Amino acid sequence: MKKRLDLTPYTVENAHLTAPCTLALVTDMHNCKAEPVLDIIDEIHPTAIVIAGDQMSNMEHHSSHAMFFLREAAKRYPVFYGLGNHEKLLHENDLEQIRATGVTLLCSEFVHFGELCIGALEPEIGDSGENHTFLEAFCKEDGYRVLISHRPEWYRAFLWQYEIPLILSGHAHGGQIRFFGHPVYSPGQGLFPKYAQGMHEGRLIVSRGLGNHTIVPRIGNTPELCMVTIR
Fold this sequence. Notes:
This protein is of the alpha/beta class. Helices cover 20% and strands 28% of the residues. The chain has one domain (6-230): Purple Acid Phosphatase, chain A, domain 2, CATH 3.60.21. It has 5 helices and 16 strands.
């Protein structure tokens, strides 16, 4: 029987939290079927769901499963949604429909959630003054800072210099094709990308993601849901 998806656990240590917190990291669904993902999320029953972008490409033709996921997830858990590069096609009224599902949509914004401060970068402006202004403000906030950055290659470009204990990413699709566990290619990183999956430097977690948007199949690369426990 073909495995539907991997559930990958990660643990990060933080002495300042008074109670552990578990985040389900959902990335790159690309409007894939929501029920299998929701079933596994319900099994782990996280404190919250964090979406690191690319749920959908446009509201008219590629959003039905994605919107179902958002509505159902928001009924059960707090949901924090940072946009990906594919959401650049969405219009303001589309973003309002997303907010109406009950999720917290973040774009160069942050919110406090219990002992956490959760923020998300705008995914298209890169190493820009706007992103640096946001990050400087974010790093002054109280609480355990969790940053949603759809593009993991931004860690090497500029995110490493900021005091952010946890950064959650997707985008790389695990390298799309993996040979003996090694990723082949990622947009923004090229051949044999470093940040295609896993934990890096104890604070950047990259998910292989759940869906696909290209004619190139996922080979040796099972879709992935990550469970991140902060304790």
